Amino acid sequence: MEKDQPEVLFVCVHNAGRSQMAAALTARLSGGRVNVRSAGSEPAGQINPAVVQAMEEIGLDLSQEFPKPLSDEFVRAADVVITMGCGDACPIFPGKRYLDWELDDPAGQDLAAVRTIREDIRARVEGLLRELGVTVAA
Description:
The chain is α/β, with parallel strands linked by helices. It is built from four helices and four strands.
C-alpha cells in the first residue's frame, strides 16, 4: 500500500520530553506533510512542565498532549523510527529505517537547558525533513 506522506515515529523512555518536542516540531516544520507520532517505552504520567513551557515560547501548545505507550502498531506504521535513549525497548521490524538521536534528557533540567535541547531537536528535525524530501516550513 502506497503512502502519500512519510510517517515518522519518535520514541523515548517516558514520552514526556524529547519525543514530544520532536513530534511537535516535525508537525509544525513539515507543514502537515509528514504523519508523526511519539511514544514511550515507559510512559510518564504527564509531559515535563519545562518542556511545555519551552514549546509555548515558540508557539507550540503541548498542554493537551500526554505520554503514550509504545506499540508494535506504531512501529509497523512508521517509515522512520527515531529513538532517543530508549535502548533496546523499541521493536525492530525489517524494512524500517531506524535512527538513534543522542540527546540530553530534559527531565530535571532547568528551562535554559530545555531550550538548548529543543533547538538541538529542531536542527535534527530540519535535517530529517530535508532527507525525506519535505520542504521545511517557516
